[in-house]
Write a structure and sequence with these properties.
With about 220 residues, this protein is α+β, with helices and mostly antiparallel strands. About 60% of the residues lie in helices and about 10% in strands. The chain is built from 8 helices and 4 strands; from the N terminus they run E-H-E-H-E-E-H-H-H-H-H-H. A hairpin with a 2-residue loop joins strand 3 and strand 4. The longest helix has about 30 residues, at about 90-120. Bound molecules: glutathione. The site of glutathione has 11 residues, from helix 1 and helix 3.
Length: about 220
């Protein structure tokens, strides 16, 4: 059966799924979506209530939402990467981190990005400052968590969620220098599966609305 992943190389949630594919060397076709393409837009609207990607098709099966795609890969195409730990209690930690990175790191970074998308020259300061304040708040929580817990072995669902969210969040609000969280970001970025996403996304950096820094 052919696995097809619909997404975009610069999209953080697409990375999340791609990292799982790359870590297990699971073969797949990549369909780079162009939301201006009527066929792509219609397909996304049909399969996802908000037309969001990534989307995975496996024959007649369609999976939406990045976390569900990774759960699907772990169940249907297991490989050496412990995407979802077999131990059910360890799996809870991985799923909790996935929710934290998506709902608080990614979402707060996206809030700032959305303010620039709405008005690149005059982004709403309440949205920009609100998003940055929420990032600082979740950074502090994660720093405390990392003081007492070990991050789950790579590459798990937690790594897949943490890598793109920390990659882009740091561009919006820098991680504190010398922090455990900054060290985790560096560790994640050095993983071959993550590095591949970074390189594939490099040509699109000019699209980052607040402006991409000259690093990474
Ligand atoms: N909760 C979704 C979020 C997906 C998402 O926000 N995708 C963005 C790209 S990173 C998207 O589809 N943007 C286009 C749009 O919203 O129309 C998931 O985990 O897959």
């Amino acid at each position: 059966m052919t696995l097809t992943l619909y997404g975009h190389a610069f999209s953080s949630y697409t990375w999340k799924a791609q990292i799982a594919f790359y870590a297990n060397e699971t073969p797949f076709d990549f369909h780079q979506v162009d939301p201006r393409d009527p066929g792509d837009a219609e397909f996304l609207r049909k399969v996802h209530p908000f037309g969001k990607f990534p989307v995975l098709t496996d024959g007649d099966t369609t999976i939406i939402e990045s976390s569900a795609i990774i759960e699907y890969l772990a169940a249907a195409y297991p490989g050496r990467a412990p995407l979802i730990p077999a131990d059910r209690l360890e799996a809870i930690t991985v799923r909790t981190l996935d929710r934290l990175f998506d709902n608080y790191v990614m979402a707060s970074m996206q809030r700032v990005v959305n303010a620039y998308l709405a008005d690149r020259d005059n982004p709403d300061p309440a949205e920009v400052e609100g998003g940055k304040a929420d990032l600082k708040r979740v950074y502090a929580w994660l720093e405390t968590w990392l003081e007492v817990n070990r991050f789950p072995p790579h590459v798990s669902l937690a790594s897949c969620a943490a890598a793109p969210s920390l990659f882009y969040a740091d561009w919006v609000e820098r991680l504190p220098e010398g922090s455990r969280l900054a060290a985790l970001r560096a560790e994640l970025l050095a993983l071959p599966a993550v590095n591949r996403c970074i390189e594939e996304a490099r040509p699109y950096r000019a699209y980052f609305p607040p402006g991409a820094p000259d690093r990474d």
